[in-house]
């Protein structure tokens, strides 16, 4: 035991968390799951007796003896019991806070702590669903004497989020393999993968603003840099905004009105329903990944521009970060985008009720907030939701990653339907940014050229 | 383990077709996965074929069985050889059912060899080797299902082969010892009764 523990701790530069977990030797929690007969030796008794019978009738001692050996196998299949897997699992990860895309080596040591040998032990490690095994199967089949240790390692590619290992499944069989027992061995291991938020480009917002000073040009006259209108002079207007040219021409005093630039409140709404977990290819990132990445860029860019930014998820699990500003809020936003279970790399469990969700979302949404809606637009309900939020006065900009493929009639139909939805949204006055292979900032820069204010 | 790309459930009016994956839709895997039964789950993490060690050991044992049966009687040897080929086919197709049929052919081969007055010793060797060959092939299929081909399985296969061989060896020792010691000149029925008595005693003790 001490040797194994020392090994686990020796592995070097692990953060304190990982070292503490590997020291938890002896904490593997065993849950017996299932016992069954494999029925693989069924019929051997019949075969043995048939051979003996033929041998007796035909007077062939060789056949009688062979049949008797078969009876020996019958006994072999009957004796023995599939023992519970009395195994301690010790799992070490090479890095418990990797960056996305890093390869993390996972070493699993299984030690038989029971008093009896396990002649046939198969271990299937509970790799978190969000991680992809890139090297070596996370499985082993072995035999363990009491006190013996088997080790195997595999490599996973880290992806955004917080990943907890599920219980290892241990399948034991008796020596003949006629009985089988499954045991779950829970050993807590966790890695947290938080991507850096890269700053996006300038993101044009729509004209719904707060009363605070910011950088979104509005239709309100006042102080600013861009010309808006002229009006009659009123006492108290600042001297530098008086239209002196007009004064010289006509002798009347007039005041220049400039567009006020104000800050906006923006809520980044990310579609994380099950239908949004779609990708163009089995290996490619899902639309949720693309949305979260783009939302991270928008989050940084907007916060840097002085706007108040919040985060919400459209999905069965609740996720809400109310709009705010400042360094602490930036850190909270990064944390939410990286590890919130509602935005996990695999779909959340549970049903999604659209009307309930919408009611709660509207209650939380500040009256002056506009919405950046990140959705792949693969179904009509996303489009109609965008229209409904927009109709309630929260101006919506739809940012849609393109995950459709075009290699079969079915995928082409999906792509066509999606384009139709984009067209309808644009027709009803909602701004749409669409990006596929291009990066999100490039797509925003291209789209901005088309938009009027 | 695979990530669900296509949603399985949905509300009424919920569209089902979502960015279908290229590999499955095009059926492009067909040429590389010819040997798979159609209902085998597509598992991208691992190769579910039986481990090489198990298949090779099963083939060696099968060849030994065929050779022994051939020494007893050529026709029986041919049948056991056929059984070995069938065992290989069952391993490649990952089908325990084919393996059972193969073992059945082998048993018929041994019965034929015994009926054609094959000698006792090669018959016993053929029986033990055939049991080992089938056992390893079947074990390999279950290992492939649960652990996969690339996982480390050699120790497991070796231990399993060892115990099965040990069980066979012990049975042969008991049976052949009884045959030599007590029943050398007795009629066959007496031999059968003697062995039956031994089995009854063994099960009573258990």
Automatic annotation (TrEMBL), chain A:
Domain of life: Archaea
InterPro entries assigned: DUF11_rpt (IPR047589), DUF58 (IPR002881)
Stretches with biased composition (Acidic residues): 1-13
Ranges of biased composition (kind: Basic and acidic residues): 21-35
Pfam families: DUF58 (PF01882)
Residue span, DUF58 domain: 230-400
Sequence segments annotated as region (Disordered): 1-35
NCBIfam families recorded: B_ant_repeat
Protein name: Conserved repeat domain protein
Lineage: Archaea, Methanobacteriati, Methanobacteriota, Stenosarchaea group, Halobacteria
From TrEMBL, chain B:
Pfam families found in the cross-reference section: DUF7519
Biased composition (Basic and acidic residues): 13-48
Keywords, sorted A to Z: Membrane, Transmembrane, Transmembrane helix
Record field: compositional bias (Basic residues): 1-12
Transmembrane segments: 53-86, 98-116, 157-182, 188-205
Protein origin, superkingdom: Archaea
Region ranges (Disordered): 1-48
Protein name per its UniProtKB record: Uncharacterized protein
Organism: Halorubrum lipolyticum DSM 21995
Lineage: Archaea, Methanobacteriati, Methanobacteriota, Stenosarchaea group, Halobacteria
């Amino acid at each position: 035991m001490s040797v194994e523990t020392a090994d686990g701790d020796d592995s070097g530069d692990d953060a304190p968390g990982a070292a503490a977990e590997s020291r938890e030797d002896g904490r593997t929690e065993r849950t017996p799951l299932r016992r069954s007969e494999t029925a693989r030796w069924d019929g051997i008794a019949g075969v043995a007796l048939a051979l003996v019978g033929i041998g007796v009738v035909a007077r062939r001692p060789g056949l009688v003896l062979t049949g008797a050996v078969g009876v020996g196998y019958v006994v072999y299949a009957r004796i023995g019991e599939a023992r519970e897997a009395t195994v301690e699992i010790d799992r070490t990860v090479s890095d418990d806070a990797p960056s996305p895309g890093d390869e993390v080596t996972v070493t699993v040591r299984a030690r038989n702590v029971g008093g009896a040998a396990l002649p046939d032990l198969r271990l299937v490690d509970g790799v978190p669903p969000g991680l992809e095994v890139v090297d070596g199967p996370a499985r082993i089949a072995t035999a363990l004497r009491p006190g013996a240790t088997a080790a195997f390692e595999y490599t996973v590619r880290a992806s955004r989020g917080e990943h907890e290992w599920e219980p290892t499944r241990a399948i034991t069989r008796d020596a003949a393999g006629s009985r089988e027992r499954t045991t779950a061995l829970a050993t807590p291991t966790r890695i947290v993968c938080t991507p850096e938020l890269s700053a996006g480009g300038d993101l044009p917002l729509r004209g719904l603003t707060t009363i605070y000073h910011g950088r979104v040009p509005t239709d309100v006259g006042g102080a600013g840099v861009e010309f808006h209108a002229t009006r009659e002079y009123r006492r108290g207007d600042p001297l530098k905004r008086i239209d002196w040219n007009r004064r010289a021409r006509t002798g009347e005093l007039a005041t220049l009105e400039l567009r006020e630039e104000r800050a906006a409140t923006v809520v980044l709404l990310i579609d994380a329903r099950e239908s949004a977990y779609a990708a163009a290819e089995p290996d490619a990132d899902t639309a949720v990944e693309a949305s979260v990445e783009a939302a991270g860029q928008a989050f940084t860019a907007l916060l840097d521009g002085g706007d108040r930014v919040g985060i919400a998820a459209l999905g069965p699990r609740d996720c809400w970060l109310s709009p705010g500003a400042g360094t602490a809020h930036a850190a909270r936003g990064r944390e939410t985008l990286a590890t919130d279970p509602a935005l996990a790399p695999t779909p959340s469990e549970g049903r999604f009720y659209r009307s309930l969700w919408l009611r709660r979302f509207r209650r939380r949404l500040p009256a002056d907030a506009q919405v950046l809606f990140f959705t792949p637009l693969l179904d009509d309900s996303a489009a109609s939701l965008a229209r409904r939020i927009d109709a309630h006065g929260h101006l919506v900009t739809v940012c849609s990653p393109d995950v459709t493929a075009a290699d079969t009639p079915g995928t082409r139909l999906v792509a066509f339907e999606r384009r139709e939805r984009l067209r309808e949204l644009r027709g009803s006055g909602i701004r749409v940014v669409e990006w596929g292979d291009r990066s999100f900032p490039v797509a925003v820069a291209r789209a901005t050229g088309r938009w009027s204010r | 383990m695979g990530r669900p790309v296509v949603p399985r459930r949905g509300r009424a009016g919920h569209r089902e077709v979502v960015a279908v994956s290229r590999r499955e839709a095009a059926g492009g895997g067909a040429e590389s996965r010819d040997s798979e039964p159609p209902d085998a789950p597509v598992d991208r993490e691992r190769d579910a074929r039986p481990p090489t060690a198990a298949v090779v050991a099963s083939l060696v044992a099968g060849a030994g069985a065929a050779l022994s049966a051939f020494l007893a009687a050529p026709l029986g040897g041919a049948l056991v050889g056929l059984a070995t080929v069938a065992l290989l086919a069952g391993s490649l197709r990952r089908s325990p059912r084919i393996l059972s049929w193969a073992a059945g052919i082998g048993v018929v081969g041994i019965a034929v060899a015994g009926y054609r007055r094959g000698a006792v010793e090669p018959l016993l060797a053929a029986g033990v080797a055939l049991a080992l060959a089938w056992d390893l092939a079947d074990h390999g299929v279950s290992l492939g299902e649960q652990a996969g081909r690339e996982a480390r399985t050699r120790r497991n296969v070796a231990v399993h082969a060892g115990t099965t061989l040990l069980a066979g060896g012990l049975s042969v020792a008991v049976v052949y010892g009884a045959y030599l010691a007590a029943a050398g000149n007795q009629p066959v029925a007496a031999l059968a009764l003697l062995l039956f008595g031994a089995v009854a005693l063994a099960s009573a003790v258990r």
